[in-house]
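Ticket #4471: structure export looks truncated?
Reporter: QA, pipeline team
Priority: medium

Steps to reproduce: submit the single chain below to the structure queue and open the exported record.
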Amino acid sequence: MPPRILAAGARVRSRASIERAGPTDLMQLAGDFPDSPMQVTAILVLGTGTAMDLTAVRDVIGRRIRAVPRLRQRLVRAPFGGGRPVWVDDSDFDIGDHVHAVGCPAPGDEAALLGVAADIMARRLPRNRPLWSATLVTLLSDGRAALVVTLHHVLADGIGGLAVLAHLVDGAPTMPDTAFPRPAPGRRALFLDASGARLRALGHLPARARRLRSAFAELAGGGIPGPPKSSLNRPIGAHRSLAVARVDLARVQRLAHAHGATVNDVVLTAVTGALHAVLRCRGEDVDRFVISVPVAGRRAAIVGHLGNEVGVMTVPVTVAGDPHQRLAAIARTARSRRPADPGLSAALLGPVFRALAWFGIFRWFVDRQHLVTTMVTNLHGPDVRLSFLTAPITEVIPVSPITGNVTVGFAVLSYAGTLAVTVIADPGRCPDLPVLLARLQSGLDLLTTARTPGPASQATDHT
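Actual output as written to the record:
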């Protein structure tokens, strides 16, 4: 839990300046465990011949984060009656606590870099400091380097995380440091702010009831059976293994258009085939899966308004038919389940998750859930190549958390014309990760290189 605020004698700020964790943010906190933290990571691979100095990296990041207030704020728990946790400026902020450097083990290839990143993302961020870190990884092959940026999910969702990254790269705006640190709100200000919020909530009850109906439709979609039991759903440990498949984004988009699908539908098709193939190798005949797909409640984010605005859509998939028939079927299913007002399911999940956490049984629940097989998170990243300290960022590799009994998950990000699909697995539960990666890569290649029948039926978006 966030530390309790100690601001009894602090100057009172206006209620408008009080920044609280939102209801969906609290859901992320409920699912955070010491051995399975809710942390998201982006690996920025820097080009050949990159020479990076930790002092210079700390200096440039320290200046650029002035435009991102949340990166110098702690989340603290309000006193009784003071409402949800509050973001307050960290008067003891030190960039050295957040930006570090590490040498990549030999041979400095992608596998070695992913091993370093897996260790970093599994390391829980200290709760008494702003919830992020950046690690410069040196000694990569061909004179390359990488920057591994990790954010706690309570700080930002995927779209918010992209907004944060946009302020760390070259060309980002800088701001003066005149207002930092602002004093924390006192008890009276917190109590008045919380009381006003509760009164306003009473007036919004009818609208919230209507939103709850839409939220249930997003989450349940009329109700679907849970997935068959398989070795893909077993309680996981603290360690992670990573692997990356890549495919040309333009090819994926052409394929999606030909089937009236989205980029995410293509990924779901390849994931379904890969999971089925791996289970067959394990001696399990499972032909149906349920995939959890985050649904963003906004199309863009600004660094002054981060947090989480995301719900969950569950997509049932089967391995029936050839890959293109499966893609068409998945596209129809996803289209029928895609909500008109996305992101509302958090209104249902949040209170349930927080109640389970309050009773101390949330871990028990997620370790035994039979609702989903895996999770696929997809984000549309920058279309053009960026740079950091003038070094070209050749690729951005996304990494999302897995938790409970989901032994393998997938994080998808497009960047400068390439779609990267990162497989995140518990190595103890998924020792055959190389097989899964090979099947995923071959599935993406087969889908995007084979001739696809039929004209483009409609324009589609990324997810």
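Status: closed, not a bug. The export was complete when the record was re-opened. Leaving a note from the reviewer for reference: The chain has a mean pLDDT of 85.
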